[in-house]
Design goal:
This protein has 107 residues and is mainly α. Helices cover 77% and strands 0% of the residues. Helix 1 runs antiparallel to helix 3. Bound molecules: zinc ion. Zinc ion binds next to helix 4.
């Protein structure tokens, strides 16, 4: 999706550049009237917007992927980045850890 937007935007910019060259080559002739500078500028803006949209969606796609990858080791619940367990399992692990420490201490 994002790569398609990027490619489309780049193709439009390429087409605008090509048309601009044609415009300059045939300046003053009837051909130049077909591609007015206003039309070329509009097409260039559309191409630029498409490229930016493609870049933004690809960045957001990567971000969403990184977030969805981080899940609780036990129950696969999505959790914030950097965490290993969900809230419930983190508490359980800490409890087990606490009990163990308590047992070794009292021994
Ligand atoms: Zn969990």
């Amino acid at each position: 999706m994002s790569s398609t937007l990027l490619r489309l935007g780049l193709w439009i910019i390429l087409a605008v550049v090509a048309l601009y060259v044609l415009h300059e080559t045939y300046a003053g002739t009837a051909v130049a009237a077909y591609f007015s500078m206003a039309t070329l500028q509009k097409a260039l803006v559309i191409g630029g917007v498409l490229v930016v949209a493609g870049l933004v969606t690809s960045v957001f796609g990567k971000g969403a992927k990184a977030v969805s990858k981080n899940r609780c080791v036990v129950c696969k619940t999505p959790i914030p980045p950097g965490a290993i367990y969900c809230r419930a399992h983190l508490r359980r692990v800490l409890q087990v850890e606490d009990d163990r420490a308590h047992m070794t201490h009292s021994r």
